[in-house]
Amino acid sequence: MTTNEIFALDRENIMQTYGRLEIAPVSGKNATMCDSEGKTYIDFTSGIGVNCLGWCDEGWISAVTAQLGKIQHFSNYFFCESAGKLAEKLVAASGLRRVFFGNSGAEANEGAIKLARKYSYDKYGEGRATIITLQSSFHGRTVTTLAATGQDVFHQYFYPFTEGFKYVPANDIDAMREAMTADVCAVFAEPIQGEGGVNMLDTDYVKVLRALCDERDVLLVFDEVQTGIGRTGKLFGFEAFGVKPDILTLAKGLGGGLPIGAFIGGEKVENTLSAGMHGSTFGANPVVCAGALEIIERVNTPEFLAEVEKKGQYIVDRVMAASPSKVMAVRRRGLMIGFAIEGNPKDVLHTCADNGLLVLTAGKDVIRLLPPLTISYEEIDKGAAILAAALA
Questions:
Q1: Dihedral, CA of residue 246, residue 269, residue 187 and residue 124, to nearest 10
Q2: Backbone phi and psi for residue 284, each to the nearest 5 degrees, phi listed first
Q3: Beta strands in the chain (DSSP E)
Q4: Helix locations, 125-266, DSSP H
Q5: In what order do the strands lie in the sheet with 25-29?
Q6: How far is CA 340 from CA 47, 320, 329, in A?
Q7: What would the pLDDT profile of 53-108 be if each residue is shown by its tens digit?
Q8: 333 Cβ partners below 8 Å, 6+ apart?
Q9: Does residue 384 contact residue 359 with C-beta atoms inside 8 Å?
Q10: In the chain, how long is the greatest CA-to-CA distance?
Q11: CA R_g for the chain
C-alpha cells in the first residue's frame, strides 16, 4: 500500500483517538526505523518504553517463535511453563512473593487496586478502601485507573468515575501524612512520573513514606509500568530508594513488543486473592511469557544495567554539549530522560520527526526520551545531533 492509502484506511475505519504523526513504520532494527516512504528514523521512544530490546531483536524473536511453534494459547485452567519461569525470576528479582499476569499496565494497576482493597477488607472490614495517589500521576485509561490518575484533565466525560481516590502533591510528606486518614488502605506512586513530566520522587520522601505506611498498615504500591525492566538503570525503579513496595506493577518493557502486564504482591498480600477473585483470558499467554523471559534474562545483569546508565548520561552530555537554548532543566535516571524546555514541546517533536528522530512529550513542557535499552552509540550520536539542533 502507498503511504496515503495506509493513512486513509486508518481514518476511515479506526476511531480517531490518537494524534498521530504522518508516519507509517514498516520495518526496523534496534533503534533505527524505516517508514513506508523509505525514510529512516532514530527511535528515542521504543514504542513508549515497550521495545526495550529495540526493533526486531533476534534473541527475542527466537524465543517467541519457538513457543509459537509449540502452542500459542491455552486458558488459565492449565499450567504454563513459560509463565511459571517468568514469575520465578520476577519474584526472585523483586523480593516479593507472587505474580499475577494480565495484558497491560492499566490491567496491572486495576489488579493492584483490587488486591489492596481486598487485603484491607479482610483485615479491617468495610470503610477502609481509599487509595492515595500523587498529583501529576498517570495510572491508566480504564474508568478506575483514570480515577486513580492525579491529573484533572483526565477526569472528564466518563462519569461516574470509580470512587475512593484522593490526591496529594509529590514529595510533600506532611500532605501525605494529613491525607492518610483511617479510611486509607494504600498509597499508589510511580518512582518517576513518566506521563506527568519525568518527575522524580525524592529518596528521603520515599523512605519516610515507607515508614508511614508500615506504621499505619497502609500498603505501598509502586506503579512501574514505565520505570520497570531496566529503564532506570536498575531492574526496578524502586531499587534507587532502598525500600521495597508491598505491591509492584509492571508492563511495557516486560513484553518487548507483545502485550503483558503484571502485579506482584509481597508477603502481606501473597494469599489475599483466592480462586475466582481475579482473572484474565489472555493473561500468562505462553508466547508473550516466553518473550518476556528472554528479556528478563538479558536485562537483569549488572553489565547490561550499568550500560543503560552510561548510555543515558551519554545522551544528555551529547545534547547539552550543543548548549541548546530552549532547555531549562534535565531530569534523568538511566534511559528515562526529560528535557524541560521553553515553548511548546510538540513543536520540537515535529521538528525532530521531520529530520529523522522520534521523541515523546510529557506534561506541559517536557521532551521525553525512552530509547531502546540496546541503542548503539552510533544511533545515539545521530539522534542527539538532531535533538540538539531542534532544541536550539
A1: -140
A2: 65, 30
A3: 25-29, 32-35, 40-43, 98-102, 130-134, 165-168, 184-189, 192-193, 199-200, 219-223, 247-250, 261-265, 327-333, 336-341, 357-358, 360-362, 366-369
A4: 143-148, 173-179, 203-216
A5: 25-29, 32-35, 40-43, 357-358
A6: 21, 12, 5
A7: 999 999 999 999 999 999 999 999 999 999 999 999 999 999 999 999 999 999 99
A8: 192, 200, 232, 233, 237, 240, 312
A9: no
A10: 62
A11: 21
Q: What is the grid cell recorded at 203? A: 529518596
| Helix H or strand E segment including 83 | helix 81-94
First to last CA, the chain: 37
Q: Which amino acid is at 96?
A: L
**pLDDT for 122-179, tens place per residue?**
999 999 999 999 999 999 999 999 999 999 999 999 999 999 999 999 999 999 999 9
Of 262, 276, 227, nearest to 111 (Cα)?
A: 262
**Lookup: cell for 244:** 521495597
What grid cell was written down for 381?
Answer: 550520536
Q: What is the pTM of this model?
A: 0.97
In degrees rounded to 5, what are phi and psi of residue 159? -65, 150
Residue 283: all three cell numbers together: 493473561
Enter the C-alpha cell of residue 298. 538479558
Of the candidates 158, 237, 230, the one whose C-alpha atom is nearest the C-alpha of residue 193 is: 237
The C-alpha atoms of residue 350 and residue 186 are separated, in whole angstroms, by: 40
Q: What is the pLDDT, as a whole number, of residue 87?
A: 98
* Cα dihedral 365/371/373/376 (nearest 10): -130
Sheet holding 184-189, edge to edge: 98-102, 261-265, 247-250, 219-223, 184-189, 130-134, 165-168
C-alpha to C-alpha distance for 295 and 28, rounded to whole angstroms: 18
Dist. CA 9–CA 140, nearest whole Å: 28
Strand partners, 101: 262
- Output DSSP code: residue 74: -
Rounded Cα distance between 234 and 240, Å, is 8
- Burial class of residue 267, CB neighbours in 10 A (0-12, 13-18, 19+): exposed
Residues 6+ apart with CB under 8 A from 96: 90, 244, 245, 247, 248, 264, 265, 266, 267
Residue 129, SS3? coil
The grid cell for 242 is 532502598
